[in-house]
Amino acid sequence: QLQLVESGGGLVQPGGSLRLSCAASRSTLENYAIGWFRQVSGKEREGVSAISSRGGSINYADSVKGRFTISRDNAKNTVYLQMNSLKPEDTAVYYCAASTIYSGLYPGLYDNWGQGTQVTVSS
User: Fold this and answer.
1) Rounded CA gap, 29 and 46, in Å?
2) pLDDT range class, residue 115, cuts 50, 70, 90
3) Cα angle at 63 between 62 and 69, to 5 degrees?
4) Range in 21-30, 44-53, 94-103, 113-122 the model is least confident about
5) In degrees rounded to 5, what are phi and psi of residue 106?
């Protein structure tokens, strides 16, 4: 059973950067599409970015295009989300999730989820 662990969250000032990591254990990530999602308490989970198993397809939410970059290193069994020019509205718990089918930012087909990492953007 694939297990995902997110890391890299924290407190950052507006305009700052963070890099989130999604590391896999118990199985290899190379056969899975990976999505990053975020959720604010009381609101629905929002798709942020997704990458197919070999990296050939990538999607971003309009709200993060030009600021966030998703990448993967299958040799390290890790997917990254580089977040630049962070805004207070990016504050949320960020989750990574895995799916054997690439569905972009639609969360319904992702069946392995990490526990999340908090990102807070505040001065």
Assistant:
1) 22
2) very high
3) 80
4) 21-30
5) -80, 120
Tokens of 111: 């069946």
> Is the pLDDT score of 27 beyond 90?
no
Find out whether 35 and 45 touch, Cβ atoms under 8 Å.
no
d(CA 10, CA 91): 10
What the block records as the tokens of 73 is: 């290193």
Question: Across the beta sheet with 18-25, what order do the strands follow?
Answer: 3-7, 18-25, 78-83, 68-73
Q: What does the DSSP assignment read for 28-97?
A: -GGG-EEEEEEE-TTS--EEEEEE-TTS--EEE-TTTTTTEEEEEEGGGTEEEEEE-S--GGG-EEEEEE
- Output the CA torsion 29→35→17→86 (10° steps): 180
Read out DSSP for 4-45?
EEEE--EEE-TT--EEEEEEEESS-GGG-EEEEEEE-TTS--
